[in-house]
Amino acid sequence: MARTIDLNCDMGEGFESDEAILPLITSINIACGYHAGDAATMRKTVRLAVDHGVAIGAHPGFADRANYGRRVILVSPQEVYDLVLEQAGALAAIARAAGAIVTHLKPHGALYNMGTRDAAIATAIAAATRDFDPACILVGLSGSEVIKAGELAGLQTASEAFADRTYQADGTLTPRESTDALIHDPAAAAKRVLKMVLQGCVTSQQGTEVPLRPDTICIHGDSPGAVDFATAIRARLEREGIVVRRLSGTA
Question: Global pTM?
């Protein structure tokens, strides 16, 4: 049986590359108006997703546009639950009006990173996802607290790996403020993704092999050259006989 993988991209955040990337991926995560986006942008992005047959996901983050939702904010688990549920519900209403549904949920930025390490935050994200829709797939970093919390909540989860980010030995992403946080060469990113998918590991910045269980690979739409990354990664995967398709349960 052929190996399969989903390619996802964060969208609706105000970048012109969205339309060009859509034919190359299988799932999108749409900003829900807090860290970026608004109702009009959500409507446009949902329509593009429907036109391309791409799975629609909610991408909730902190209400911190000045820092693009990437600054850590001290919040309680209840506040996390509320902001995730509110944002997912807003996108769902827009998707429903377009005859579509929200099939998955992936936290954004600082919220994503906090849920990776903090069990209480992860539990709140999982609870909000379950209460939004028990059939919604919760996407989180492979091996993270969010994946554990989602499984405990009875949700289908999707473990994520990143095409354009480097990793630390503990399996976390290199902080963005580090000079070596991003990968800039599309060919190098495609080679790393292939290793992730076929070998289930990635080489950390410390030189160790970090185990991964990738169900989906993220390509950041806000990264320079995002279209080139998506093109190179999709072509390399298909050349190796790997089937690129939406997450199971979202077809």
Answer: 0.95
